[in-house]
Amino acid sequence: MAGSEPAAGAPAAPDTVKILIAGGFGVGKTTMVASVSEIVPLRTEEPLTMASLGVDDLEGIEQKRATTVALDFGRITISDDLVLYLFGTPGQQRFWFMWNDLAVGALGAVVLVDVRRPDSSFAAIDFFERRGIPFVVGVNGFYGEHPYPPDDIREALALPEGVPVLLCDARERQSCRDVLIALIDRLIASAVTS
Question: I need a labelling partner for 177 at 20 to 30 A (CA). Which of 7, 88, 99, 188 fits?
Fold first, then answer.
């Protein structure tokens, strides 16, 4: 087809990979996308209102003032050949219906975990396990603290040995980049063995 081939000498477009950043309500998904994105991230945050009282569980995150109501979107260039498109999922149960659409075309995911509320992570872990989407677990250290080692977190979340568990800080670009690189390494390893 005429015009579909790049001009001779023109650089090839990089491969793009869709990655989901998922987890429970208030675990740091929006913060992670914002800290690692090389573009100004698209956010769909809205203020929490009185209407969410009794619907959204704020236990342990009482200071939270806004919430993602659709998705977050960011981009990070890993190399000249590889660009990641990051899609942060909403965390509240009332928005989980969107996860199926957001997961279409995703090659992998980061499940963020807040050790103060580990039970908020089970739905995301189950979602990716059921769909066979490879994921890594990023343990977001709120206030810079990581009170539990990765092996304890793996056991508490009943994760298989093959799922990497990484301590991170969603506010720090380098930390989030390391989690994404671990996910890319897992995706490459699974592609080689299949």
Answer: 99
Domains identified in the chain, total number: 1
Convert 84-103 to b/e letters by CB count within 10 Å (16 or more is b). Answer: bbbbbbbbbeebeeebeebb
Is the CB of residue 45 less than 8 Å from the CB of residue 67? yes
Q: Find the domain containing 116 and state its range.
A: 15-193
Query: What whole-number distance in Å separates Cα of residue 91 and Cα of residue 93?
Result: 6
pTM of the model: 0.84
| 58 pLDDT above the threshold of 60 | no
Residue 133 lies in a domain: yes
Find the mean pLDDT for residues 33-52.
76
Average pLDDT over residues 141-169: 91
